[in-house]
Amino acid sequence: MSWTLLAFAGLFEIAWAVGLKLSNGLTRPGPAVLTVAAMVVSLWLLALALRSLPLGTAYAAWTGIGTAGAFLAGIVLFGESVSALRVASVLLILAGLVGLKLSS
After folding, report:
1. Which pTM value belongs to this model?
2. How far is CA 41 from CA 15, 79, 86, in A?
3. Is residue 34 over pLDDT 90?
4. Measured over all CA atoms, what is the biggest interatomic distance in the chain, rounded to whole angstroms?
5. pLDDT the model gives residue 97
6. What is the DSSP string of 28-62?
7. Are 6 and 58 in contact (CB under 8 A)?
8. pLDDT recorded at residue 13
9. H/E element, 102
């Protein structure tokens, strides 16, 4: 259950990262409110997951999910560049996440 909570926390982290972009630095009220709400939900879910997961593992997984998701969202939603080095770097982050999951 903790890993499920952590996965959802990571998804909300992606949502608030995208929201920061869409809110133009929190200057657009609608997207800004949704961004802050996603931040609160993400941190709350992370806190729940931390009840039974090790801090280092949970935090690394949470940020890794957010990093990889924001990377993909940037490409899909905002037309950010794709290069072999950028993709390889994100794949290394994902490999680290798998290693953390397997070791806990």
Report:
1. 0.88
2. 10, 27, 29
3. yes
4. 42
5. 86
6. SHHHHHHHHHHHHHHHHHHHHHTTTS-HHHHHHHH
7. yes
8. 97
9. helix 84-103
Distance CA(43)–CA(94), nearest Å, equals 21
Give residue-wise pLDDT tens across range 63-97: 999 999 999 999 999 999 999 999 999 999 989 88
Residue type, 96: G
Reported residue count of the chain is: 104
**Whole-number Å distance between alpha carbons of 66 and 14:** 5
pLDDT higher at 50 or 101: 50
Q: Which long-range contacts (CB under 8 A, 24 or more apart) does 81-90 make?
A: none
Reduced to 3 states, what is the DSSP secondary structure of residue 63? helix
Place of tokens 């869409």: 22
Whether the Cβ atoms of residue 66 and residue 47 lie closer than 8 Å to each other: no
Please state the separation of Cα 97 from the chain's center in Å: 12
Q: Could you identify the residue written with the tokens 């090790």?
A: 54
Structure tokens at 81: 């560049």
